[in-house]
Design a protein that fits this description.
Layout lengths: L5 H6 L7 H24 L4 H11 L3 H11 L7 H9 L8 H16 L3 H18 L1 H9 L2
Helix pairs in contact: 2-7, 3-6, 4-6, 5-6
Length: 144
């Protein structure tokens, strides 16, 4: 959906960010994005829904497998799951991390069908914030 890399830095006007600071900056952006998206997506969800999603994200094996059994019993034939397998050729279909990633995506489709729009909107807001502060970010990076 989005990639935080040198192209992202160029897009937000931070291509002059020193090489030795890029990874840390991108990790900070990812963390901020993840937190902001989480807050937005949790709005309107019940405590039970939040607990269910948390158990999937935390890779609780029983929760993940039970959710898949109930909601997507034929998940191994889903093109999305097949795509995850292609992206992770060293993993087997019964790998809990792989199943958890798939279940999280499907859970969001069921419970927050607008999640892609939320992620895109939050990402754009974050990009705008970075672009509006790029001079300060670059000045701070040069002083370190």
């Amino acid at each position: 959906m989005f990639h935080l890399d040198d192209n992202f830095l160029q897009e937000v006007g931070l291509e002059a960010l020193p090489q030795n600071q890029r990874q840390a900056f991108l990790e900070q952006v990812y963390s901020s994005l993840e937190g902001r998206v989480g807050v937005q997506l949790s709005e309107g969800l019940s405590d039970n829904q939040l607990e269910e999603f948390e158990s999937i994200i935390d890779r609780n094996e029983d929760s993940v497998r039970q959710w898949l059994k109930v909601h997507v019993p034929d998940f191994q034939n889903d093109p999305i799951f097949a795509g995850l397998l292609r992206q992770n050729p060293n993993l087997q279909p019964d790998n809990i991390a792989l199943q958890s990633e798939y279940a999280a995506t499907k859970w969001l489709e069921v419970n927050r069908p607008d999640y892609r729009d939320v992620v895109a909107r939050v990402m754009q807001d974050l990009k705008n914030e970075i672009m509006n502060n790029r001079e300060a970010i670059l000045a701070s990076a040069q002083s370190h």
